[in-house]
Specification:
Layout: H1 2-16, E1 20-21, H2 29-34, H3 41-44, H4 47-50, H5 52-59, E2 66-70, H6 78-85, E3 90-95, H7 101-110, E4 118-121, E5 136-142, H8 145-150, H9 153-166, E6 167-178, H10 197-207, E7 210-215, H11 245-251, E8 256-262
Parallel strand pairs: 1-7, 2-3, 2-5, 3-4, 5-6
Antiparallel strand pairs: 6-8, 7-8
Amino acid sequence: MRRTALVVPVLCAAALAVPPLLAQAPAGPIATAVASAKRTPANVARDRYRHPAETLAFFGVKPTDTVVEIWPAGGWYTEILAPMLAERGAYYAAAPLPRGAEAIDAIKARDPAFAKIRLAAFPAAAGQPVVPAGTADKVLTFRNVHNWRFGGADKAQAAFDAMFAMLKPGGTLGIVEHRLPERRDAAAEEKSGYMKESSVIAFATKAGFRLAGRSQVNANPKDTANWPAGVWTLPPTYRLKDVDRAKYAAIGESDRMTLKFVKPR
């Protein structure tokens, strides 16, 4: 723990040396995938907060890529990525099995466009399917680092080490995560659902990644990250139910870091 505390300030300075990029409206396969009628209306309604086209363009996702999505949960990004990659690329949904497969299996059964989704265990026990080492062009995870951090710093580090192993040399790790202001006590990472950028960068750097870019496409300056029920106070969870619901609806979804890392060649 002492060693990490010493490293983080250095990483903060390194992160500041990589200027955040402004979002660019993408065209082509990504825009087509985001506009697909195969997406559920409830998921499309979140686009104004999650900016999927701009986010995937920032990560450099192409239809020919092998993409691994770590912990896709209900499949919000699965609906976009799986059809786009079906013909010339590959899409892995990597999650704890068998529980993590339930939502993905339901999506696969819904439409032939999702039939080629590949399932992998993350983390993997002996005998479970895995993403072969060194085969992925992109590994992406959306709002999951805090979940690993809840299990302890060692488990979070293990997740980053495993993602590093999946990627080809030169491959990209893309992370979107709820952002805790750097001035806040790091102890908030253990319960609030928010993470400091410097903490995420520290985990990635220790695994061997190089920070390649930062985007503010998913930033939300209205989010002060100090809510009574953590990040789940805000939409779409509304953990406080009807208490101040209009206030939290006006704030919108959380302020999020969008970070791009590269596995050195």
